[in-house]
């Protein structure tokens, strides 16, 4: 049996163990058994880089899998990457990054992607809501009556 250690910051006794840790990306998650030095409670544990490789591998696999899921949902909805970025959020190039796995979607975008996957009929509702909001780069703001107010040429808006 391995001798216990003392945590260098907390002073707690640590014992060699393996515990399940959850890795999440988007709406996907996986439990991974991670060896290390653990206290009796759920406070800070200590791990070597080699011990964390399973977590890193699971995170990479989930990122790749969720990127494929985002693409599948977008195609199911019949949207281009640019349309999806405008309707779901994140900007014009967001879905290019989400689908390549280089950038994970925000929690808000994940929520909308998952709702639209389960309720694709709500795409029109979201489209209508987005068409009411002023788009970046399109002049003016909406007045309380819903009309677009554009600044006069050569005059900067106070918000700019």
Automatic annotation (TrEMBL):
Q: Which SUPFAM superfamilies match?
A: lambda repressor-like DNA-binding domains
User: Which Gene3D superfamilies is this protein grouped with?
Assistant: lambda repressor-like DNA-binding domains
Domain HTH cro/C1-type intervals = 70-123
Q: Name one Pfam family in it.
A: MqsA_antitoxin
Where is the stretch described as Disordered? Answer: 132-160
Name the domain of life this protein comes from. Answer: Bacteria
Q: Which UniProt keywords apply?
A: DNA-binding, Transcription, Transcription regulation
What's an example of a GO molecular-function annotation for this chain? DNA binding
Check the record and name the InterPro entries matching this protein.
Answer: Cro/C1-type_HTH (IPR001387), HTH-type_reg/antitoxin (IPR052359), Lambda_DNA-bd_dom_sf (IPR010982), MqsA (IPR022452), MqsA/HigA-2 (IPR032758)
Q: Tell me what this protein is called.
A: Helix-turn-helix domain-containing protein
